[in-house]
Amino acid sequence: MNITKPFGSTLDLIGNTPLVLLKGPSEAAGCEIWGKCEFTNPGSSVKDRAALYIVRDAEARGELKPGGTVVEGTAGNTGIGIALVANARGYKTVIVMPDNQSQEKMDTLRALGAELVLVPPTKFADPNHFVHTSRRLAEETAGAVWANQFDNIANRKAHIEGTAPELWEQLEGRIDGFTCAAGTGGTIAGVGMGLKAFDENVRIALTDPHGAALYNYFACGELKAEGSSVAEGIGQGRITANLEGAPIDTQYRISDEEGLHWVGRLLREEGLCLGLSSGINVAGAIELGKQLVADGRKDVRVATILCDTGFRYLSTLYNADWLRSKGLPVFEWLERD
């Protein structure tokens, strides 16, 4: 029986997340598919890691001083992580978020004491985009720093120094592939760089939702988006600083329907309640596993990220009316009277 040692700080609870073998996906892939349980972080998502590194980096550079404020533009989870880290360090938080994100994220941020600024969703080129709005608010706020998660490489450093070594140790130095989707790019780039430092033969795959441009970029060198996705927090239309130099070996495009299929199966068969980004990641991991097996690798092991808890999407992914409004299949248990 492994008993976790006691920690001297609540911030030490971030990272060192469990890794679990996913039975259904492993059977579908014909190899081992492992999920990194990032929903066990204090803020219930993988973004806690980036939040901690970004705040510590700002402190180390002397930009964030006692009583200061952290401002960030986010789809929600990074904001939640920053709010928790800022609370623990004595800072205030201002979060700018598109108003089409889940109500649960908005309610959580307000409950954590963050000042929440909602803006309409728009293209990155629009000066009113949530990222640009957060930058301006940081510039206008005395004692504030802009977290800038998309282009602040403290983000991917969290995964180079944390997530990748954890995976390597948990899988006892035997891992054939890793995949996840990209939002800021910090996770896929950081884990990829970290694992390649251990073994250049680890295959790193991008799993992109429809509506994002990176699949085409890595497949044919063109930033071109096709289709759309309701997944929150993933999908990117540009090469962020975190993505620069990412060691992507191959790429997959996964539909919302396929991601939802695995969200449903993991809940119904394995007792994991997850968000859509996790379902998309798992579907990508299955494709990567199949490819590695077809390539002749033996005893294949593939890892992916289980990004956040499904409890953050009760009003969307787990709401029959919402799913119907998006033209998506409804989980059969939500059809019951």
UniProtKB/TrEMBL annotation:
Identify the InterPro entries for this entry: Cys_Synth/Cystath_Beta-Synth (IPR050214), P-phosphate_BS (IPR001216), TrpB-like_PALP (IPR001926), TrpB-like_PALP_sf (IPR036052)
The broad enzyme category this protein falls into is transferase
Pfam families documented for this protein:
PALP
Ranges for domain Tryptophan synthase beta chain-like PALP come to 12-308
CC cofactor:
pyridoxal 5'-phosphate
Keyword field: Pyridoxal phosphate, Transferase
Asked whether the UniProt record includes Transferase among its keywords, one would answer yes
EC code: 2.5.1.47
The reply on keyword Transferase is: yes
Example GO molecular function: cysteine synthase activity
User: Its domain of life?
Assistant: Bacteria
Q: Which PANTHER family match?
A: CYSTATHIONINE BETA-SYNTHASE
What's the protein called, per UniProt? Cysteine synthase A
Q: Which organism is it from?
A: Altererythrobacter litoralis
Taxonomic lineage: Bacteria, Pseudomonadati, Pseudomonadota, Alphaproteobacteria, Sphingomonadales
